[in-house]
User: What shape does this take?
Amino acid sequence: MVEFLAACVVAGTPLVLATVGELITEKTGNLNLGVEGMMLMGAVMGFYTGLHTASPLLAILSAALAGAGGALIYAFVTVTLKASQVVTGLTLTIFGTGFAQFVGEPLLGSMAPSEITAFFAKTTIPVLGQIPFIGPIFFQQDAFVYLSYMICILAAVYMYKTKMGMNLKALGENTGAADASGININLYKYAHILTGGALCGLGGAYLSLVRIPIWQEDVVNGRGWIAVALVIFVAWNPIKGFFGGVLFGGLSIIGLRFQAMGLGISQYLVDMIPYIATILIVIISTHKKRKESQPPGDLGNNYFREER
Amino acid sequence: MKKLLAVLMALAMVFSLAACGGGGDSAEGGGADANATKVGCIFIGSINDGGFSQCMNEGLEKAAKENGMELVKKENVSDSDKQASREAAINLIDQGCKVIVGCSFGFGEPMKELADSGDYDEVTFLHFSGNLQNETNMENFFGSMEEARYLSGMAAASASEKNVLGYVAAFPYTEVQIGINAFTLGAQSVNPDVEVKVVYINTWGDAEIEKAAAEQLIAAGCDVLTYHADSTATQLAAKDAGIYTTGWNYDNNVAGENYLTAPYWDMSAYFTPTFKAILDGNFKPTGTEPFSSYGSMASGLICLDELGSAVSEDAKTKIKETQEKMKAGEFKVFSGAIKYNNGKDLCKEGQTLTDKEVWSINGEVEGVTATSNEKK
Assistant: This one.
């Protein structure tokens, strides 16, 4: 049981990072459907840098920059040029996929150097790792997983406990009012969309650097879309984002667990559960109209100051 | 103005995508001669994917070189998109290709349509897998991979201490189940008590899911793994856990010391004589069902990689003996009394399955735990 829950955390980590990235983006009022593309860009650049420099830190940095680079295209087109967010996001997914294939073509089949794999090997955190039950699940993981814990906590503190976090919320709820109150709209949008993209890039790099350190096409395989759904599922809350990511990660492998144990539960049925859960959550939260589980008020609307 | 710029930006993204993806044609290989016969090859993946497409490509390169032919390649062609694969084939023919090789199941239908259309009678269509052929210019080919699977099962059982082997499998359908059954029978020939646990992942290629499945099998007590899926993720999982694994498809060891062996294809064993027959004008599909050409260990299409150090000397000798018998045509995997794990007969005492009967296998043999059991 414990080792299965630990596997859920691992399977959930790319989802957690991408979900937190996307929810930070959406808090600015911008819906970026390019998560899948940014994850792939992060995956391929992280791997490329890791392969050529053998430095885990440079690899992580490069993955974050690649994700942020994808987000920069998106931010420029939607924030500055005010083009359709949905279309731009979708195009970014297609672009990111092509980018990863283009950069990844000569890397196919190459293996990340041992410095990288050794750095991301599982390490037990002293004291915490010894706690019964909790320890083996959460604190006997790899460095990247610990990074994702820190990111979730930092994001929550930032969003709920700082003035800038409050400004971010105001921006997403009512961009016009935020603008009138003196918040630098474009700076906030750019900063958070880029941060969100960087986290998506890290999510992709977890797959290519830690889980499958041999480059192959389409390592992300639709996980970006699950992250987009997860943002709704976790109601734009980074702490819930962590547990939601782990839950969905767990659901993606629980069918395999059943099979390995010889239980005859249809894999197809299990594969549907995350989506059914998301639909239910959306229905319930819309029905209950709970303020904190609603999307940011101005989500998806481009802001034209002149048109106010 | 800004809106116009936005549109231009979006267009720029689309075009840069077209420039990145797509996988253009590349003419290379074999004959430097400008008059060399051109062979058009349609691959589902990239030719350096370290797996199936690379294995195909190497066989084609070798065969083209031997016969002085030139290869024109189209990579990353979706085999679920009939229109795209049809267009790829027509485009290759327009470039002067006299032979079209389709390297994935889904290319079969569009190839058959073209072969039967009457417009391309001078072109020969060679299709891997599937069941489509005609009497003049289309042949499908495959091989008795069960032979190499059987031998790899022997290697796996000899390296296992817990007598529980794990099998990461793509889909519960015949080709995969032939492999599972052959692997299990091979393992049982070394150790009758061995158990094979199968996890179906319902995808050909999702490396992360493949690795997760392998990890769940390890957690369920397996100490040797094997797989029938696209990536080498299962090998990685075995290496991380310090247990043994076999490879698959292509002799690509990423598990180092933990690698036992791999069943793989040497496609040149098919392409070299077939290309020669085409050049000589002697090519004719055999009309045998389900495959017009069915290679084997004896023909050289089906191979087993070198055995790793974890396979005992005793087992090595036994495996080599069985392999020699297969090559001599004296050993068939599906022969004698074999039962499915739901109690039904797969093969009766004194019976040897024909190739057609092998290709109607539906289910796993005794000794296998797999949840597709419940459906029957």
User: Anything to note?
Assistant: The two ends of chain B are 65 Å apart (CA to CA). The domain at 21-142+267-295 of chain B is CATH 3.40.50.2300 (Rossmann fold). The longest strand of chain B covers residues 97-102. DSSP finds eleven helices and 16 strands in chain B.
